[in-house]
Amino acid sequence: MYSFFRSFGQTFGVAIGGVIFQNRLTAILLDSSNPVLVANAQEWARDASALVEVIKILQDHAIKQELVTAYVDSLRVIWEVMCALSCVMLILSVAFTKDISLDRELETDQGFIHDRKVSDEEEREDVL
Fold this sequence. Notes:
This protein is mostly helical. It is built from 6 helices and no strands. The chain has one domain. The chain starts with a helix and ends with a helix.
């Protein structure tokens, strides 16, 4: 269950983060006064990895600086949303988790069988 919920949470975290990043970056680039940024806003917001490569090869300092600022602002919004979501989940986990002491006897049907004689047949199976 631990692995399942961890993978499930990662899936949602990546999807939510990607949507926030794309929407924020698109909004910032569309609000720009630079026509190059406005024209390429949808394309650049779609692929953040490709945008990093575009930023690396840009020569125009003004466009490059505005793209870096938009990229950083988009990442900052993701961080803020995920921090808020983490705080909400912390409060919910504290509010809805039962207080169960870990210092208690183990109650289970599983366990060791003590003082049991092993038959010759069982002993042969153990050897094989």
